[in-house]
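Input record (Table S2, row 492):
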Amino acid sequence: MLNFRRQFPLVVAVALAIVRIASAGPMQEDVKGRRARVMDKLGPDTVAVFWSAPPRIYSNDVNYEYRQDSNLLYLTGIDQEDTILVLMPGNRTKREILFVREADARREHWNGHSLTPSEASVASGVETVFTANQFEPFMAGVLSAQGAPGLPQADEAKAFFDALGQGRANLALLLEPQRNLTETPGPARQFAARMRDRFFGFQVKDATPVLAGLRQIKTPYEQAVLRQSVLISTEAHKAGMRAAAPGKWEYQVESAIEAVYLNNGAMSWGYPSIVGSGPNATILHYEKSSRQMENGDLLLVDAAANFEGLTGDITRTYPINGHFTQAQRDIYEIVFAAQEAGIKAAKIGAAPDDIQKACDEVLRAGLVKLGLVTEPTGRQFKIWATHGVTHWIGMDVHDVGVRGKPLEAGMAFTIEPGIYIRDQAFNDLPKTPENAAFIEKVRAAVEKYKNIGVRIEDSFLLLPSGVENLSAALPRTVADVERFLSESKGSR
Ligand code: GLY
Ligand code: MN
Ligand code: MN
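Output record (glycine complex):
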């Protein structure tokens, strides 16, 4: 079950109280609706199987904290290993069947209680729950049209059995991407191959696009949880801003941020915190947090919590002494203006690529103006603006979605332009006369701006009324950032 494990401390509770999701009821209603929509899309000729994630080894005999498979979590809300969901949309009454692991007193002494079938039923809203050892005979009965244990009525699975008899049934799975023929197939593909060896009358179908399309549109319940998740993350960023100062270490900022997650009932971070000061701000996925910060540094912090399964994505870049230098400000203002242009482009009916184009135009023009780029058109500016500026957010920080689908209400995404000036970037350029001329022309500007890295990233939700910046509580303009830092100076 999703982890509603802590109450908020009073101080943040005041800010968050309105959107607190207190009971498991709305979650169960929501996951029921998600399963119904998946079944609608899969159709009555289909049996679909979804597995929980395996545990993952940290080192030797210690595992990482368990992370449920996002699709299984999306469909059941159950955060437990050895869980399998079967959907049979054509069944008369038992269209959802869940399998959970058997009770084991010794394991539960070591690792904690496992949901019994009846507890799993309450947690997920799935009425028919069996233990995991019944999965094999169940599938064998279904795919051989013999009738499965647990589906006793003769006509319960008639629609699927008819489809099987006529050779038009589907076995829908989340098939792992297969890049080439020599790569070992993942567990779902291996399962499909084993079923194909033994049974007939069905095709294997990839359910990945169905899940991606549904997860892309957040339900009102998900919107409320995501809003709260991002609110916790904005509180965390503020704590990080208060903790940052010359002489402090990056890990001290990280610790201030992550304490706010745990203190507010978030399950964990949504992705490892990036806390990069000085030259580390130009490393996109810097995770070490091991540098002592110096007066004059900019600090880039990209961090967000996983709260009840949903993750925002936020970056702020700020001067740890409270004041941007002129050079830092030059870069920051371009990134800020690019993000503003991206926000304007984020409208219902627009393409995600319109956001990219809007940001790119501002980034390119700004970089030309600073003398860091010589070409006012084309892709030369990508040497300093190296990553895409938008992606979906949700159960995964880089969430799933249907590529190229126009923006619609319920979609959640980032807008995150960035500029990173690294003189090593010249080494990546092919040694051509044109590139040598480019390097000569921009060398002085690169000398001036080198080691400055700025990203500004907010988490957005598109609503019928327009785009909502979920992380708007966090200072973003130069003036607001400097004001916040100066006001928090007393506590730093
Ligand atoms: N935090 C990873 C990203 O911004 O995409
Ligand atoms: Mn991002
Ligand atoms: Mn990010």
